[in-house]
Amino acid sequence: MEEKEQEMHKKFLAEAVKLAQENVNTGRGGPFGAVIVKNGEIVARSSNQVLITKDPTMHAEVAAIREACGKLNSFELKDCIIYSSCEPCPMCLGAIYWARPKALYFAADQHTAAKHGFDDKFIYDEIAVPKEKRKIKTVRLVLDTQEEPFKEWTAKEDKTQY
Amino acid sequence: MEEKEQEMHKKFLAEAVKLAQENVNTGRGGPFGAVIVKNGEIVARSSNQVLITKDPTMHAEVAAIREACGKLNSFELKDCIIYSSCEPCPMCLGAIYWARPKALYFAADQHTAAKHGFDDKFIYDEIAVPKEKRKIKTVRLVLDTQEEPFKEWTAKEDKTQY
Prior knowledge:
2 copies of one chain form a homodimer. Chain A is built from 7 helices and 5 strands. The first copy, chain A, is α+β, with helices and mostly antiparallel strands. In chain A, a hairpin with a 2-residue loop joins strand 1 and strand 2 (about 40-45). Strand 4 (about 105-110) of chain A pairs parallel with strand 5 (about 135-140) of chain B, so a sheet runs across the interface.
């Protein structure tokens, strides 16, 4: 990576870290921040909002993706870059894949997060485990009707693929 | 599982499948539905809302978790059961782990979903791959300030652990 380019990425990452730091003081949520950039401009900046919203899905990355998609009026973050103060958890990584940005940059890694009480390794581990052995009891029950929604979707002619 | 208990779970699952089916007709999003139950009562019912909200994180499970947490005024779904019309994707599985319900039941599996164009296997595969080899370019850049938010969090005395 060219030095100048790296400096730009570090500038946006530093903004994400700054959001994380401010967030601790305001008490809105955990010490995490994320910034989404398109064509060199910030389109969304968000921090973890789990405490203030009482919504466990409002991690910084998810909150920033929702904000950016709202602003860009699209369910895809085409040509966007996500900067996260910390390595994303599995939920946020999944959200990032659905949002389809062109790149992800992060600063602190999961070991630093774990050291301060934010351990998402157990979720990474659970994903790799067969569902019968997961810590949250997980059961598949087959229903006669279970494929009907998919069949109707497949047959629908005026649908938007996403 | 006792037959009577299984019938109860199937009843709630059927409700999730019904939401999925209705969702195709209304065009709000993909053919997915989820219901959250506490003490035998439905506290949230939601369908995939990706198209109507243009928010790629608004899968049925995430939407239902957000609704249930709002109603219960808590970032934890203690003693709740999540019923999903289909096996959760990695994002939703992550969200479920953060929400901490006591159980998850689902009907259709990922193979049925993939047959109809909803293939989340690529995200499951990507999670298992080292970040240098992921399809969305993923770069870690170390910043001098990256641990500051965590240190402030750890030092903060009046924080809510989540």
